[in-house]
Amino acid sequence: MSGTDVPVSPTAEGSAIDPLVAAAAGYPSRYPGGLAAQPAGRVAVLTCMDCRILPSEVLGLEAGQAHVLRNAGGVVTDDALRSLAMSQRLLGTTAVMVVQHTRCGMTGLDDEAFRRDLEADAGRRPGWPVVPFTDDPQANVRAALAELRDCGYLTHRDDIRGFVFDVDRGDLTEVDAG
Ligand SMILES: [Zn+2]
């Protein structure tokens, strides 16, 4: 194949994933290995996928210490409950820490318009449930705590706490469940 025949692909100038793969090449030398699948800290963290939050940095987590579940908003979805139920029943965690944050990208999202646009592009409507999300992160965390504490799928509901991470200051504030 001559140079002019090389097909143009989205990866022609390199994939956005390449630097991550390169970084991973240096990881084995730092990885402790020999860890159990059961989190040593017996805690599961539910937080937003926001790129400004690095749970291991903020919470001082090492490999083997905690489950970290992430989704858009750090909200209690069916899939989050599925993972938390497995975390508790199969892998021995007993506490749930919810961490949402200020200036979340989901704030002000018109859920109905978002789903309508997706349907227009994809030809079918997403089946995901609507998760209420307000402009008040404290209120959102309270709603998440209430839902988790009321969820019979979770074996352990005595140690469920919620926090708001400030993406400007980098600090964590506990939310009174009220
Ligand atoms: Zn967010």
Automatic annotation (TrEMBL):
Annotated EC: 4.2.1.1
Recorded superkingdom: Bacteria
Cofactor(s) needed: Zn(2+)
Catalytic activity, reaction form: hydrogencarbonate + H(+) = CO2 + H2O
Binding sites annotated in the UniProt record for Zn(2+): C48, D50, H101, C104
Free-text remark on how the cofactor is bound: Binds 1 zinc ion per subunit.
GO MF annotation: an example: carbonate dehydratase activity
Protein keywords: Lyase, Metal-binding, Zinc
Top-tier EC class: lyase
Name of a matching Pfam family: Pro_CA
SUPFAM superfamilies (UniProt xref): beta-carbonic anhydrase, cab (SSF53056)
Cited InterPro entries: Carbonic_anhydrase, Carbonic_anhydrase_sf
CDD domains: beta_CA_cladeD
Annotated family: Belongs to the beta-class carbonic anhydrase family.
Function according to Swiss-Prot or TrEMBL: Catalyzes the reversible hydration of carbon dioxide to form bicarbonate.
Protein name, UniProt field: carbonic anhydrase
Annotated source species: Microlunatus kandeliicorticis
